Amino acid sequence: MSLLTVFLVLFTCSPLQQQPTDIPTPAPDTTMLYTKRRIVLPEVPQRGRILDRHDSVLVATRPQYLLKLPRRPPLDTLALGQLLGWGPTTIRKRIADALPYEEAPAGYPVQLRLTAAEATRVRRKSREWPSLTLTESRQRSYTTSVGAHVLGYSSAEADAFYNQAKRYRRGRFYQLRNGGVEGYYNGLLNGRRGVLHPLVDEQGQTQGSWAPDTTFQQGQDLYLTLDVKLQAYAEQLLGRRRGYLVALDPRTGEILAYVSAPVYKPATITAPDQAAVRAKLLQQEGMPLINRPAMRANPPGSVFKLVNAAVALQLGSITPTTGFRCDQSLISCVHRHPAPSNLTAGLKYSCNPYFYQVMGKVINYVPDSLVQDTVAARHANLAEWRRYVRSFGLDSVLGVDIPREAPGFLPTPEYYDKARGTTRWRYRSIYSLSIGQGEINLTGLQMANMVAIIANRGWYYPPHLVRSIGDSGPLPRFTEKRYTLIDSVHFAALLPGMLAVMQKGGTADASSLEDVGIRVAGKTGTVENDEGNDHAAFVGFAPAENPTIAIAVYIENGGFGADAAAPCAALAMEKYLRGSIAAKRKRWEARIQSRARHGY
């Protein structure tokens, strides 16, 4: 026998029908020839379910019934609608939604999803409708119409979506492969088939193993942190607007609501009869398929004054009693208010000149050792400011369990050296940092986590969407408490100002919930936008004394944070903490939901 023949015999795989054995075998005789076999056991794991924090099933693998319509017209759609129990409008819309484009020719292949009851009707009338084809298969089924960006989709079932996406702006296509928790936890959801690796001699007898065997693993269920009722309510508040709402429990880092708007139904991406709906999503200027809270980083605006104040307190640049004039020769201030005589007043009125001077104290500080080199002092001070700010989890990914999380951005001294074309830049050329504008960019997840840190007086658990994988709890990294570089006493100094924001004369006094016994600590932000209306932002937590919900809202082109973002946050907090909205805010709620439906 030639050497080549021996080599081929050694590495030939046997048919899968080979029966495995559990009988211990002695070590193989090295003088004999053996065959390496790989036996995949017949049992196939079932993909795990996805449930919300109250154990309501949101996604599961279930039978799917597809009705294939005849390709040759004419088709009596009225009679077909009667067969399925659909009205004339419904049958026309369902067929239109299944076509990939409006001008699709008559007879274009169309498949419609049916319920089990509708499939039974078709089977009973199969002789009268011989041109219809009904098939049954097991596919991922969504039992909810909310949480599309959280739930995501199985990549194996999204091929039609990817193929459609390739025909549109190609840059978007690459960002669409995120898949939510379906994609992030795909391996755990899928489970694992059992595989044996016997080493077989020339007589067909097993003589040990050539590799470790793989044990069978059933697909694991995912128990989300999401409160599906709060999620549905929050989606009603944002609707077709562009922006996000992220709410989490600051005590655990569990994400309670995660809205990326404009919103759409999660089944849209993989459903075979939603091609037209997908096409519209891909073409919309609002780009609803982009996962905004994780993938989009924007200037935070005045909500960032909280971070700058904490850093300035830590560095000793100010104290809680420090006051500054509202000097509008330094920077404009859109609010008319009394002179901010302390930090609480500065936050209450969101005074831009006040925080201009706070940041100036940080950047322009010159120690005795650098009195002859103010350039080096400014560089060192900006680097030190950035070090403290980064401890909030900014300018880096938080490690949230969702794909394609963006890190955001905080400028370095070297960045300004290059951008300004000189190392001799001064505070006046970077002062926009003082009000959360310019080069600062944060994601929605970072904004929510930032305010959770303040609620906790300086620590946080990384935000996450899955509270338990089967019965084993979350991923280990989500149980590791992390600390900022700011002392807790300085976070406590922010609280009076955040409470004042929600009280009479504060920038968000209209969004107070004190009438129902809930004290909210918050901060509004209005982000300047050269390309249209300003963006509206708000961060806050409640109850202020023992926070159980922290929230960040950002509405693109929404205008003032107090008018657009703060009301959404207040309603979401009230809904979560009380379960209902007080009568005095019902009209307010209806107006916000109406705007959300119309996208303005």
Automatic annotation (TrEMBL):
Entry keywords, A to Z: Carboxypeptidase, Cell membrane, Cell shape, Cell wall biogenesis/degradation, Hydrolase, Membrane, Peptidoglycan synthesis, Protease, Signal, Transferase, Transmembrane, Transmembrane helix
Signal peptide: 1-18
GO biological process terms on file: cell wall organization; peptidoglycan biosynthetic process; regulation of cell shape
Molecular function per GO: penicillin binding; peptidoglycan L,D-transpeptidase activity; transferase activity
Residue span, Penicillin-binding protein transpeptidase domain: 243-573
One GO CC term, this protein: plasma membrane
Keyword Hydrolase: yes
Residue ranges of every copy of the Penicillin-binding protein dimerisation domain listed in the record: 44-205
InterPro entries to which the protein is assigned, alphabetical: Beta-lactam/transpept (IPR050515), Beta-lactam/transpept-like (IPR012338), PBP_dimer (IPR005311), PBP_dimer_sf (IPR036138), PCN-bd_Tpept (IPR001460)
Membrane topology, from the record: Single-pass membrane protein
Principal subcellular localisation of the protein: membrane
Subcellular location: Cell membrane; Membrane
Name the UniProt record assigns to this protein: Peptidoglycan glycosyltransferase
Lineage: Bacteria, Pseudomonadati, Bacteroidota, Cytophagia, Cytophagales
